[in-house]
Amino acid sequence: MVDAEGVPIHPRPDRHPCFARFPEAPGPRDIRFRILVGSAGWSRLPEAVRLRFSKRTRGGQVALYRGKVIETRLSRAGWWLAQLLRPLGTPLPLRQESGVPAMVCVSEDERSGGQIWSRLYGSHDRLPQVIHSVKSFAGPTGLEERIGWGIAMALTVEARADGLVFSSDHYAWYGFGRRWRLPAWATPGQTVVTHRDMGQDSEGRGCFAFDLEVRHPLLGELLHQHAVFADQ
User: Fold this and answer.
1) N or C: which end of the chain has fewer CB within 10 A?
2) Where are the domains of the chain?
3) Taking every annotated instance into account, which residue ranges of this chain make up the domain DUF4166 (predicted)?
């Protein structure tokens, strides 16, 4: 079943999301995340979350979110993983920093049709760390987080009453004109990113919590980061 705009009410997990049927959403809205969670799930989200994830950034426009990293935990294995991934664009926090400023910038990737996410994390005694990735609306789950050297993480998206949960389904490598699914033993395990709405701050700006967790089936928690951001 679909809603009035043709968006599935309850998308089936065994079917690839069909973005081709929605080449252009009317006006400034971006309905791709709505397609991923279905119109029923979308309607459960707080209005502020729907606005953040339907904001279209084109023609040099960006969406900015400023905040603070409350806590970053790295196990010994997690620290080594972060260092080993440096050649791929340093996709993970490198240090256990807490109480440092942070900023997220979202813009449109005109080449792929996805979104460029740039994250800047301050430091108490070093230069800030900048992490770039591209959210591509592709692959079997309909959403991938792509970093350097053709590595991608396929994500599933779940709508909850207070926000969105992005969970890794599998990892893949793009090379030689093909998409190669990586075996589980060659991956860091399960990655979960949570976007939880926190209402408004004292200045009336929308706020949300960002939580990132990477957990290996044998080594346990590798990384946990908790940060809060405000709309700009």
Assistant:
1) N
2) 63-231
3) 45-229
